[in-house]
Design brief:
single chain, alpha/beta, Rossmann fold, seven-stranded mixed beta sheet, four-stranded antiparallel beta sheet, 9 helices, 31% helix
């Protein structure tokens, strides 16, 4: 495995994955002993070609899938058995298709659904909804029907449904997929402003560089590389080996901060 220097992050690990292996019922094995530690407050992108096991890994973080072997722990608690209710509050998943998470008549009702299931009512529930919608810039959209929103607004509304649960870890599957430039920017602004641990599964390499100081490359069901996003994207040989291609004209040696990756 290739390991490059990564920026220091505060706190101990909030996500601990050790020896994670998983096969689907048809016998197709997707993960082959994944080891990964994610520190509290860290922002990490999971990169890799189609079929690498990225979404399968993501679904283990809150117990939608459970390990065939190995362990997944959130704040030291195994993702198993009696821990599931609290694990699913602490780890919020945002799926690529927001319609998988928006099913109520109004956006506000969608955002209220999770906290209401935890027993919140009245002013406390209303405050939780307002807080989550404000965080994604949709406070004035509470009474709108989800299908009347743009894709970018629906994706931010889906994020709000998770934020209303006040998670410690936010996991996003292809968050920028099919968004127009304004939608990409608006979502990036939301995600940048959140004070929590973020795990982003994506094929969008510029988005990974913009939002996540650290990335891992998952390929063939194992972690093939782990390091700073910029350093990984600057390694042309590594990128080619794992069928990752930068968009035409995108130069990872130059970031929005103007820093380089040590290559003239």
């Amino acid at each position: 495995m290739i390991v490059s220097e990564i920026p220091a992050t505060p706190g101990g690990p909030v996500v601990e994955i050790e020896g994670l292996a998983f096969a689907y019922p048809d016998g197709r094995q997707v993960l082959f002993g994944v080891d990964l530690m994610i520190a509290r407050g860290e922002r990490i992108a999971v990169l890799g070609p189609n079929g690498a096991g990225k979404t399968t890994l993501m679904l283990h973080l809150n117990g939608i899938l459970t390990a065939g072997s190995g362990t997944v722990r959130i704040d030291g608690a195994p993702v198993a058995g009696g821990n599931m209710r609290e694990i699913r509050r602490r780890v919020g998943l945002v799926f690529q298709d927001p319609d998988d998470q928006l099913f109520m008549p109004t956006v506000g009702q969608d955002v209220a659904f999770g906290p209401a299931n935890l027993g919140l009512r009245g002013a406390e529930l209303a405050g939780r909804v307002s807080e989550a919608l404000s965080a994604v810039g949709l406070r004035d959209h509470a009474d709108r029907a989800p299908h009347h929103l743009s894709l970018g607004e629906r994706r931010r509304a889906a994020v709000a449904t998770v934020l209303a649960m006040r998670p410690d870890v936010l996991v996003l599957d292809e968050p920028s997929a099919n968004l127009d430039p304004a939608g990409r920017r608006e979502l990036a602004e939301v995600l940048t402003g959140l004070d929590l641990t973020l795990v982003m599964v994506t094929h969008d390499l510029p988005y990974a560089l913009q939002l996540c100081p650290r990335s891992v490359i998952l390929d063939g069901g194992v972690i093939a590389a782990d390091g700073s996003t910029q350093a990984l994207l600057c390694d042309a040989e590594l990128m080619a080996a794992h069928r990752l291609e930068l968009p035409f004209g995108f130069e990872p040696r130059r970031t929005i901060t103007g820093s380089g990756c040590g290559v003239p």
